[in-house]
Amino acid sequence: MNNPNSKSLAVVRNSSEEEGVKARILCFAGSTREASFNRRLALAAARAVEEAGGEATFMDLRDHPLPLYDGDLEASAGLPLGVRPLKELFKSHHGLFIASPEYNGSFSAVLKNTLDWISRPAGDEAGTVPYAGKVAALAAASPGALGGLRGLVHLRAVLQSVGALVLSEQVAVGGASTAFTSEGRLADERLQQMLDRTAMRLVDVAARLRP
């Protein structure tokens, strides 16, 4: 599992895959909380991606702070320094796996702000370029019974509006405070199998769509 910030993470490799031909999947949570349930879900998704034969990069949004989007700021100073590296990170991957918390029936402000900044033009490059040809899988974790499911509807619409292909498969983890094992897997085997299948589908479609 790759990590752009060199944090120590467990790695699961599929030895049947040759290096350099794997679908590269960027996995992250729409939260900056260290103890975020969705951060744990994104890590579980990254492991599932690698077990499915993909190459996973875990990204933590707390390592990529951005100001709130402001058109006047953009017009006067251009893109903030942190935006271009995020654009390049998106462009260097074939797919996205996003674990999104639900805030008031939608998804988080920090995730929306990140997606909005990435969608801004950079010179002659259209803002939709980092999303072009990308396939995305969505998941959510919440202490509530619905597992953050309502917020994924809005996230799906935003990603589709910027040109990403969003898989119909998704995972909602309710009762998140007790949903994870000490090894980072989902304690409910049925949910873990859903996560595995979603990761497998993501890797397969991303591999088929990559240039």
Fold and architecture overview:
It is a single chain. This protein is α/β, with parallel strands linked by helices and 211 residues long. It is built from 6 helices and 7 strands; from the N terminus they run βαβααβββαβαβα. Helices cover 36% and strands 17% of the residues. A 5-stranded parallel sheet has the order 2-1-3-6-7, sandwiched between helices. β4 (102-103) and β5 form a beta hairpin. The protein is globular and about 50 Å long. The two termini are 22 Å apart.
Number of strands: 7
**What gap, in angstroms, lies between the N and C termini?**
22 Å
Report the mean per-residue pLDDT as an integer.
Answer: 91
Could you give the order of the helices and strands?
EHEHHEEEHEHEH
| Residue share in β-strands | 15-25%
The number of helical segments is 6
The rough form would be described as globular
Q: Which residues sit in consecutive blocks of at least 5 with pLDDT less than 50?
A: 5-19
Describe the biggest sheet? 5 strands, parallel
In short:
The protein has 211 residues and is of the alpha/beta class. It has six helices and seven strands. α1 packs across α6.
Features:
211 residues, alpha/beta, 5-stranded parallel sheet, two-stranded antiparallel ribbon, 7 strands, 17% strand
What's the structural blueprint in terms of helices and strands?
Blueprint: E1 24-29, H1 37-51, E2 55-59, H2 71-77, H3 83-91, E3 95-99, E4 102-103, E5 106-107, H4 109-118, E6 135-141, H5 149-161, E7 165-173, H6 189-209
Parallel strand pairs: 1-2, 1-3, 3-6, 6-7
Antiparallel strand pairs: 4-5
Helix pairs in contact: 1-6
